[in-house]
Design a protein that fits this description.
The protein is of the alpha/beta class and 233 residues long. 34% of the residues lie in helices and 27% in strands. Helix 6 links the parallel strand 7 and strand 8. The longest helix is centred in the last third of the chain and has 18 residues.
């Protein structure tokens, strides 16, 4: 059984009206555990809408989404919240760090929601920051760190829960090429060492080339789905 299974997923806005928008238009897709997948498309292609549905941040207008065999449409709000906090880690282009908290406190946040005790929580957060090369920045605030360092804090926060799925939405979009390459290498390490399922959402062909499988979306539909070596980027 696939970890992620979408069957004819539609996301409609203003349905039935003259200005109806089909952000997703009949997407069928399966992703297995341990895959490193890039979902690539231009602005307005539907890739971010697809990520929101995959991440249980939104529900489709039509179609069936199964995550680990469970129907998303039949999950209660608390079940969806549990998935977002335990089963899926999110990395965003804008980092989404809390300015008033230092690096360690930012990484601890999802662990607090999980009910992890203080001493254990500190240990996990510290180890996550050390894993991304920020063991010497534990008590730095976001304003005291570069963009690349803030993104690494965001990655540490995402992996601190041990989530088996990591969704990265334009994780290098605000970074220079060197720092972006370092962030992608961290994702590769997680994939190799932990078997984490990585979903990398991007508009950049060079970033997408880091993945093992390429899914290209245009006008709300999948137009390419193939192994990386079969497509020129």
């Amino acid at each position: 059984m696939s970890l992620i299974q979408l069957d004819r997923i539609y996301k409609l806005y203003n349905e039935g009206q003259d200005n109806e928008v089909r952000a997703l238009n009949g997407v069928t897709l399966s992703i297995d555990r341990g895959e490193f997948v890039a979902i690539i498309g231009s602005s307005g292609s539907g890739k971010s809408t697809l990520m929101n549905i995959l991440g249980c941040l939104d529900l489709p207008s039509r179609g069936v989404y199964r995550l680990n065999g469970k129907l998303a449409s039949q999950m209660r709000d608390d079940e969806l919240s549990h998935i977002r906090n335990v089963e899926i880690g999110f990395i965003f282009q804008g980092y989404n760090l809390i300015p008033a908290l230092d690096a360690l406190e930012n990484v601890e946040l999802p662990l607090i929601y999980q009910g992890v005790g203080g001493e254990r929580r500190l240990q996990i957060a510290r180890e996550a920051l050390e894993r991304v090369g920020l063991g010497d920045r534990l008590h730095n605030y976001p304003s005291q760190m570069s963009g690349g360092q803030q993104q690494r804090v965001a990655i540490a926060r995402a992996i601190s829960t041990g989530a088996p799925i990591l969704m990265a939405d334009e994780p290098t979009g605000a970074l220079d090429s060197k720092t972006g390459a370092q962030v992608l290498e961290i994702l590769h390490q997680l994939h190799r060492e932990r078997g984490t399922t990585i979903l990398l959402i991007t508009h950049d062909n060079k970033v997408a080339a880091a993945a093992e499988r390429i899914i290209r979306i245009a006008d709300g539909q999948i137009v390419v789905d193939c192994p990386r070596e079969e497509i020129a980027l």
